[in-house]
Design brief:
The protein is of the alpha+beta class. It contains 9 helices and 11 strands. Helix 1 runs parallel beside helix 2.
């Protein structure tokens, strides 16, 4: 087993993400310009494991090996043949900006960030394209569905699939330059992904599956070549209606925006809303949401073209 040199350190940045985008359930992801920053420092053995959490989740996330960033860091180091705290200790600092339990990929970012810390530390601070592929695979397996994690790894628009339980593959279509995401987060409303997923049934009617497949294909075309088709391309029959009772405020916002012709969907497992619009309509959508009162946080984060980065 290898060890680590005391004094070595790495910092990584990881973007938030929105998944599904309507019909692309568990497969399509979009990176968002909200960044978490994680840092690891190698300390002398005996210093103990120190975990510092700042920002989002600072009052709730564990400051221990149970922290997802730390657990993912450990997995990456062990994959590189480095014994966990074998001859060294660690200080891990998490500066979180991604809202938690909102449908913006906070857990995927934590997994990606921790894995990135581990692989970069093992490579003396660098992350190659091959390393990003390893992070993508490990994070997708950890999450169980690689839509959010792949967008956080690579940035931009991603389409991911798992041909087997231990393999993750990702295509990276080029997002049309006119497409702009608007994120709306209902104040004081949060929903754990595990709860949202438990609301989904085990079977899908054949007619719905056929319609869903067609809209998923159309969604990629709309996002890359023809944004005018986004309203039709974001129609979903698989998951949003089944969760309506869990977040009526969210679905009310989706209904209102779609009724005005804007391509609004539930972001991931919610309760955030993602509106996929074009640059010329951003102000129109934002102005509409301002008429709803102060119960919504409205963000225009943009889409970063890079994902996980290390320094």
């Amino acid at each position: 087993m290898r060890s680590l040199s005391v004094g070595a350190s790495v910092t990584v940045s990881v973007p938030a993400s929105s998944a599904n985008l309507g019909p692309g359930f568990d497969t399509i992801g979009l990176a968002l310009g909200i960044q978490d920053h994680y840092r690891v420092e190698v300390m002398p053995q005996g210093a103990g494991l120190e975990v510092v959490v700042e920002g989002e989740g600072s009052a709730d996330l564990p400051a221990s090996e149970d922290n997802l960033v730390v657990a993912s860091l450990r997995e990456a180091l062990q994959a590189c043949g480095i014994g966990w705290r074998d001859g060294y200790d660690l200080r891990v600092t998490c500066r979180n900006a991604i809202p938690m339990a909102a449908g913006l990929g906070s857990s995927a970012a934590a997994a990606v960030g921790g894995l990135g810390l581990g692989f970069a530390l093992a490579r003396a601070g660098d992350l190659t394209e091959a390393d990003l592929g390893l992070v993508n695979t490990h994070a997708g397996i950890l999450e169980g569905h690689p839509d959010n994690s792949s967008a956080s790894v690579f940035g931009g628009l991603t389409v991911s699939w798992m041909p087997s339980a231990q393999v993750v593959r990702t295509a990276r279509p080029t997002l049309h330059p006119d497409v702009e995401p608007i994120v709306l987060i209902p104040t004081g409303v949060r929903l754990a992904t595990s709860i949202a997923r438990a609301l989904l049934g085990p079977q899908v009617p054949r007619a719905d599956a056929v319609r869903q497949a067609g809209r998923s294909a159309l969604l990629v075309h709309a996002l890359t070549h023809e944004p005018s088709m986004l309203l039709d391309a974001t129609q979903d029959w698989l998951h949003q209606e089944l969760r309506r009772d869990a977040y009526p405020v969210t679905m009310g916002a989706v209904d209102a925006l779609r009724g005005l012709g804007h391509a609004a969907v539930v972001s991931g497992a919610g309760p955030a809303v993602l509106c996929l619009t074009t640059r010329d309509l951003v102000e129109v959508v934002v102005a509409e949401t301002k008429t709803w009162g102060r119960d919504w946080q409205v963000l225009t984060p943009g889409v970063p073209t890079t994902g996980l980065t290390a320094r």
